[in-house]
Amino acid sequence: MQDTPNLAGKTVVITGATGGLGLEAAIGIAAMQANLVLVGRNHAKGEAALARIRREVPGAVAEMHYADLTRLDDIRALAATLNEQLPRIDVLLNNAGSMFAKRDTTADGFECTFGLDHMAYFALTLLLWDKLVQSAPSRIVNIASEAHRGVTLDFENLQYQRPGSYSAWQAYRRAKLCNVLFTRELARRLDGTGVTANCVHPGFVATGFGDNNRGLYGLAIRFTKLFAIPLKEGVKTPVHAATSPEIAGKTGLYLSKSKPCEPSAAAKNDETARRLWDESLRLSGLEDRGQGREVPGDGSAPEAARPSARTSA
Questions:
Q1: pLDDT reported for residue 204
Q2: How do 91-94 and 138-143 pair as beta strands?
Q3: Do 250 and 312 contact (CB within 8 A), yes or no?
Q4: Are 95 and 108 in contact (CB under 8 A)?
Q5: Domain region containing 217
Q6: Is 172 assigned a catalytic role?
Q7: Which of 121, 160, 166, 172 is catalytic?
Q8: Which among 21, 115, 223, 270 would be 20 to 30 A from 230, CA to CA?
Q9: What share of the chain is helix, strand, coil (3-state, %, to 5)?
């Protein structure tokens, strides 16, 4: 990697860091001398991930925190620990996610893909809001996907609660649309704080994504990965968004191949983004939190969050 940034003294929080894209990003960022704060669910995988980071990057400073990000109580406990123990958070990389062959619900009653791929991003970000603002200039990076194209949100059936309406692929695509819309609204609400919010399409990467599924659906996912790009290629855009000086101060971006690009028309709908924000507040029970609710000025999207040649999404 050319012109590798030096992140000595910076703290980077990465979710979904026990394998795949999250672990690969952690290794790359560890080489930049950042202090890594990693989040995973499985203790054995977490210890193995730490061992690999320290083996590949001698002297790396990394710690693992364990939380099930499908559970709001775990997210609250995780955020409370990080807020108490960390003097600063310079980068929050929301990476954890999956896709579920059959409709199921989390402990909080969320459809699983929506709960893990969107609500976990939303709740953890809001709960770390004050720390991120205090640490400014800081960055939030959300892992999205080109899969967001071609779908819209149906707020009357947001979590496929209507019998017979669930499709695993459609649920995933909608969750990725939520990621882009969340990033757009987040950038708008963070305007003027020194905290930037961007999202990325890492590419179709060969990871453990979807391996939780069994049967024919799981077999199909594993087959498609034969055509995926290597992890070391897919991690470039997330790491670029999290660390590159080129991104400093830029917000509301949707990045692919480390370059800003236009998301779908549905992903640029400010009314939908605000409605999703309000619905996510209600579902998460975080309405009582002042941060992230009040928008400076007249409430219109700031220039940095509007689509342009410089920023989009």
A1: 61
A2: parallel
A3: no
A4: no
A5: 11-305
A6: yes
A7: 172
A8: 115
A9: 45, 15, 45
Q: What is the pLDDT of residue 226?
A: 40
- Interacting residues of 182 by C-beta distance below 8 A, sequence separation 6+: 118, 121, 122, 142, 273, 276, 277, 280
Residue with tokens 């220039």: 303
- Does the residue 3 lie in any domain? no
10 Å CB burial of residue 275 (0-12, 13-18, 19+) is middle
Question: In the prediction, which pLDDT does 215 show?
Answer: 54
DSSP string for 121-178: HHHHHHHTHHHHHHT-SEEEEEE--GGGTT----TTSTT--STT---HHHHHHHHHHH
pLDDT of residue 278: 97
Residue 162 sits in a domain whose CATH number is 3.40.50.720
Instruction: Assess contact for 71 and 107: CB atoms under 8 A.
Output: yes
What distance in Å separates the CA atoms of residue 48 and residue 38, rounded to the nearest whole number? 12
**Residue 5 maps to a domain:** no
The radius of gyration computed from the CA coordinates of the chain, to the nearest angstrom, equals 18
* HEC string for 44-101: HHHHHHHHHHHHHCCCCEEEEEECCCCCHHHHHHHHHHHHHHCCCCCEEEECCCCCCC
pLDDT in tens, 119-168: 999 999 999 999 999 999 999 999 999 999 999 999 999 999 999 999 99
- Listed as ranges, residues in the chain with pLDDT below 50 are 1, 207, 209-211, 213, 217-223, 225-228, 290, 293-313
In a domain, 253, yes or no: yes
Q: Identity (one letter) of the amino acid at 289?
A: R
